[in-house]
Design brief:
The structure is a single chain. The relative contact order is 0.11. It is built from six helices and two strands; from the N terminus they run H-H-H-H-E-E-H-H. It has one domain: Orthogonal Bundle (Arc Repressor Mutant, subunit A), CATH 1.10.10.10. The radius of gyration is 18 Å and the shape is globular. The protein has helices at about 10-30, 35-45, 55-60, 65-75, 100-120, 125-135, and strands spanning about 80-85, 90-95. A two-stranded antiparallel ribbon has the order 1-2. The mean pLDDT is about 95. By secondary structure, it is mainly α. This is HTH marR-type domain-containing protein. Pfam families: MarR_2 (PF12802). It comes from Streptomyces gobitricini.
Length: about 150
Amino acid sequence: MQSTRHSLPQLLGEARRWFEEGLLAALEAAGAVPVSPTQAQLFAVLDDQGTTVSELARRMGVTRQTAHQAVHGLVATGLLEQVPDSASARQRLIRRTQEGERAHRQAAVILERLEEQLAERIGQKAVDALRAALEVPWGRPPSLSPK
């Protein structure tokens, strides 16, 4: 008989998708510029002062090409801009435009409301415990050999 128990990575992925779907639906209902899940993730890992495409790709766990495509889509909508990196003549930083900052603040409010909804569904203690567990530094992944 096959186990119906989901792995922790599967559960974390489903939880992330719950927030992502709620965020994108609320943004669409508010008439915001439509963004893809990858573009929304890019916004979440972008530093306020700007971030290189290579660093965005690393943080998102995607290829540079995928990050580059997401950036170009968001630049085309006016939510992001590319500016020279003062630390490197070869690099460009990706940062939010004024409209991108407004959208980022709007998304933060929506995510707070989603967290409140989650607390109503599973209880504030469970949400607090989940947050506390996820905020503890895990360190680097161990090197395990298969049994």
